[in-house]
Amino acid sequence: MVRLEKRLNPNRTVAMLTPLLAVLLTMLAGGIMFALLGNDPFEAIRVIFWDPLFAEPFASYSRPQLLVKAGPLILIAIGLSIGFRAGIWNIGAEGQYIMGAICGAAAGLAFYPSESPLIFPLMVLFGGLGGWAWAMIPAVLKVRFGTNEILVSLMLVYVAENILAMVSTGVLRNPEGMGFPGSRNLGHWDAASNPELIEGTGMHWGVALSLVVVIATYVMMTRHIRGFHVRLAGEAPRAARFAGVNPTRIVIFCLGLAGALAGLAGLFEVSGPAGQITIDFASGYGFTAIIVAFLGRLHPVGILLAGLLMALTYIGGELAQLLLGVPAAAIQLFQGMLLFFLLAMDVFTNYRVRFGTTKVTA
Amino acid sequence: MIRNLLLASAATLGLATAAAAQDPTEACFVYVGPIGDGGWTYQHHQGALAVKETYGDKVNVRWQESVPEGADSERVITQMALSGCDIIFTTSFGYMDPTNAVAAKFPKVKFEHATGYKREHSNVSSYNSRFYEGRAVVGHIAGRMTKTNKIGYIASFPIPEVIMGINSYYNHAKAVNPDVELVVTWVYTWFDPAKEADAARAMLDQGVDMITAHTDSTAPLAEIAKEGGSAFGFGQASDMSAFATNDDGSMGPRITSIIDDWSPYYVKRVGQLMDGTYEQIDSWGGMPEGEVVIGPMTDAIPADVQAEAQGMIEAITAGEYHPFTGPMFNQAGEQFLADGETIEDGPLLGMNFYVQGITAEIPN
Could you tell me the domains of chain B? Predict the structure, then answer.
């Protein structure tokens, strides 16, 4: 018999090192997979992890793209991590991301073709509000009726996807689009677009905000009473109640903040890299961010690094497909391995494996 | 001065040709689904393989599958251009704006976008197929074969391409069966086997016995197969011949198919790029160009119906028959095509209304 036994004092250094170990194990197992597929494993690993950063002619383009891809992941993951620390499981960031993009884009498009400088700030406001409002549904249902936020927030993703299809073919459809689905391209409309702030850096308002949020969250979680309450609610709910932490307020705060950040990520994406509301606008950032949050150990700085790493596997994975003909499914498997090894390492950090049966002594 | 310029450009041209003779032409493809989807992407990939087959060592074919539409596709297309692709085919409508955005940054690379309408730069061409020609043929077959007088159309999105397909299918069924009734189900997806199967099931439960789909999976055919031969369907995008016979050897649900054959277009365009006759175009080919093909008909279709269908295919291929030939009326009874008049491409590409006789409404 093999059993797992909880370690009383998990080693903190080991806990910090596990993500790194997980990456190494992924490289190893992934390399074997690539070899079995008939590719040179060393070349494949190099193309995924090295070429996007340092090999021309790709690197000068992909380095900024790393920020573009990581920005929304980090923004959403930070919001989720605060809830996860408090034991509030918002799985529906994808829906909040979509609703933020729809509300923000709609707020802007209502004033098309005005060139007022107020349009973009208005869109940002509505983007955040849209995500916040969508997250308030599971929050209010949870505090009023005790429903499970995991189920409700996840189900609302599918509702949001259908709303996205509806507005793309309906109210937000580009009137000059020959009847095809999809809104006007916000990138072609200066007042509503979210361009690169400095040419060639990939840095747009969303990326800038995600960096600010990383710092702000770090400060809040370590220095502010609100951060202390969040951690306490997650780690010791009973103690939290004795300490006067109001569980209702924690739920509303955590879900609301995560929703607003996801909504903002959606708005910055639709007005920047994506450019328009289309049926396929949702690209899974909301779900990938859950991986990023855990990969980053629910710690703001960890999430920053995890977001960049995740973005690297995407961009490097694309290059591997293009240059080496690796199938798309192999790249997805590779990313899946990363999460698998991380979770496996977690188990071994927190538990010890015991062989043989326990003897019950009286 | 002008002479020098001409000489200089002639020299550059010469150099370019010389370089082309040494290096293989890089033809690159961006796919929205996996190459094994058995439908849309599979067919585009067959076209890419045909390019390799035709030109051998003179061409290098590369591709990337399952590329999400939107921001990710812009990055993928850019990386392709950076990696030395000479011509890039982007094979889904959602790549339209990204394709044009990347084309602006790489004026020397040729871009070809499928099923869209934006050509913002001189190096962007667009191409599509006249799928409605295939719908006319299967509509005719459906109208002749239905026993319940109810025929179905699993529709993806309410865009002109789908609406013209519905109109073409219905018109040609009604022409041979005035009692025919059309059931349209909108699934709001191009590829979702579960939703497509649900739509087919709902239709079958209403008594629909002939179903065509404007979505890419084989799920509707699998659902129709459960009826044990009382209902039939058509392969879509790809031949889907696996459904022509059941596992036990009996007649399967797929009685023929509308095949998108992109090979003639891809082979032609890459060839033009290599021999220097390449120009920006907006291509809309159909049966005459070999881009829309009706797959083999099974014996489930009576011999006389097969002969009629074959006659229609030949007439369309020869350019003698246009599936949108007047007189035609819209749902409100207003005439939009006079007797014998054929529709222009412009109004056809923007078609946003049903023809007379369809009782459903286009969702808004």
Answer: 2-129 (3.40.50.2300), 131-261+291-349 (3.40.50.2300)
